[in-house]
Design goal:
Length: 200
């Protein structure tokens, strides 16, 4: 018996995000997933050390690795389309859940039972879901900043939207990250390593 679940996950690298926009550098779903998982883990550590929000950093980080996995089947639905109306949003959510179930069924039943809650996010608490969503938005914000620095005005509106969305979330962990970490994303390697105590 063959189980194609992981081979399917490997196809994340073929899915391009921001498909309705011109990008100076294409971003794959695989890249976004890795960035989001790293950010989610950091936000959880910030939560534990500074804000007191209860969370499980490792659990949230693993859930982040799977958070967009259904897009392997559905493709990346552009945000303006996905959230254009309540009907479209609800329909897409239903498709995502169906896709998650279809993917998990490609594992042996014992593993399917363990993996499904990570794909759906059902094992996360409400505060953990918020931290994961904030990480997802931060990843998008960082991409928009990267495009803006490259002189690509195509992302100007998306940059403003992501900043507003994060502010509206009222997520203290994201606010901490934006104040203390986000400015470093404009620095080059020499500046980053010098500031971090690395080799001069």
């Amino acid at each position: 018996m063959l189980y194609p679940f992981n081979a399917l996950l490997a196809r994340m690298k073929y899915i391009t995000r921001w498909s309705l926009m011109h990008s100076t550098r294409a971003e794959s779903l695989s890249e976004h997933t890795c960035d989001t998982a790293l950010l989610a883990h950091t936000l959880c550590l910030i939560a534990r050390r500074y804000t007191g929000t209860p969370c499980r950093p490792k659990t949230v980080a693993v859930a982040a690795l799977y958070h967009d996995a259904p897009e392997i089947i559905t493709g990346d639905m552009p945000t303006p389309v996905k959230y254009r109306s309540e009907v479209l949003r609800d329909a897409y959510k239903a498709i995502e859940r169906e896709s998650a179930a279809a993917m998990a069924s490609m594992l042996p039943p014992e593993l399917e039972e363990e993996v499904t809650p990570y794909i759906t996010g059902d094992l996360l608490t409400a505060p953990e879901r918020k931290l994961l969503k904030a990480a997802d938005r931060l990843s998008a914000l960082i991409k928009c900043m990267e495009e803006a620095r490259s002189g690509n005005h195509e992302f100007d509106a998306a940059l403003a939207q992501q900043k507003k969305a994060l502010a509206d979330m009222a997520c203290p962990e994201a606010d901490w990250f934006i104040e203390h970490c986000l400015p470093c994303y404009t620095q080059n390697l020499d500046e980053l390593t010098r500031q971090g105590g690395g080799p001069a």
